[in-house]
Amino acid sequence: MKILCLIDNLGSGGAQRQMTNLALLLQKKGNDIDFVLYGKDDFFADVLKSSGIPITIVKNRNKLERVYRVRNYIRKSGVDIVISFLETPNFLACLSAVGKHSWKLIINERSSNLNSFISKKSRIFKWFARYCDKIVCNSINGKNLWLKYYPQYKDKLMTIYNTVLVSEPKSQPAAKNASKRKILVAASYQRLKNMDGVIEAVKALPEDFKARLEINWYGQTEVVPNDTKAYDAAAMKIKDLCLEDTIHFYQPAKDIITKMVEADCVALFSFYEGFPNAICEGMVLSKPIIMSHVSDYTVLVDENNGFLCSADDIESIKEALMQFLCATEDELRNMGIASKEKAKLLFDNEFITKQWFTLFNHL
């Protein structure tokens, strides 16, 4: 089967990681994959190239030319199935499906941001979803938003969780600094990821708690090209509040899994999430989780494997951090075991792959 995967670029974002993982799994099952982009970021390019998956960049100088060239490429591709991720690629794929064609189109919802359902642009883009064959949401929450705002597509909707490709560490991590507990956050530096809330919560901690905490945040500073305002403001706030010894900002790390292995906990404090890669990966790696009330949090985290908080409540975030710091080593170890058990049930790659092939066979 020939499958075309369409996304904006191969930057370090969550959707890019998800599509890369899906392409690898589909190729492993004997499918020919054509990975198509219209942007230049290449964070995950080496992963695809090392597996022999070709990457095509559709060159364009403006948005109108992008529409023409992407549509032209897809319609001449000779593939059996087109899979698109993210709002604009979904729109371009649906626009490409207008008119007679033999291939099937699966668009994917990766966001639970309300604005991506009710804004004028989103309403126009989602009108074109009538031209796709299926809409796959990577969370139950995302599917419910489609049902609420676009019930006319109810027969096209289904949920398939993300694939999680994480190799077990070959060796145990080096001994940790017992005086500090490390929390890892893997999220881009944008306001919806809630850097401010985390900074304020850390500021509010008692000094003895603050001295025992280290938060290492890895992410892309430019969510919009040449715009680092959110990152700059958060970094300045950390400096102004003298929290440089507690909160550390880093660029995206290609060895993020190694960083997770070295951490004591994996966390996410966002206002909105589609389905959080970092949380899923942390669970697979047997890590306790701290997570805000986003996406399918009721499925992912409970008192057995972590701590929940409200993104818009500084006191709630502070309380989650304190609970983590007060937990004994045995309690954290048991939480990690519970995370691993949950992950086995939710993210089994064979099960998720079967869901995709069942979908393909029913198109």
What does this structure look like?
The chain is α/β, with parallel strands linked by helices. It has two domains: 176 residues, Glycogen Phosphorylase B (Rossmann fold, 3-Layer(aba) Sandwich), CATH 3.40.50; 166 residues, Glycogen Phosphorylase B (Rossmann fold, 3-Layer(aba) Sandwich), CATH 3.40.50. It has 16 helices and 13 strands. The strands form two sheets. A seven-stranded parallel sheet has the order 3-2-1-4-5-6-7, with helices on both faces. Strands 10-9-8-11-12-13 form a six-stranded parallel sheet, with helices on both faces. Strand 1, helix 1 and strand 2 form a beta-alpha-beta unit. Helix 3 crosses helix 4, helix 8 packs across helix 14 and helix 12 crosses helix 15. The mean pLDDT is 94.
Summary keywords:
seven-stranded parallel sheet, 2 domains, alpha/beta, 43% helix, 363 residues, 16 helices, Rossmann fold, six-stranded parallel sheet
| CATH architecture classification name of the largest domain | 3-Layer(aba) Sandwich
Helix content: 40-55%
Poorly predicted runs: none
Strand tally: 13
> N- to C-terminal separation?
13 Å
* Shape category: globular
What gyration radius follows from the Cα positions, in whole Å? Answer: 21 Å
Strand order of the largest sheet: 3-2-1-4-5-6-7
| Number of helices in the DSSP assignment | 16
CATH homologous superfamily assignment of the largest domain: Glycogen Phosphorylase B
**Major beta-sheet overview:** 7 strands, parallel
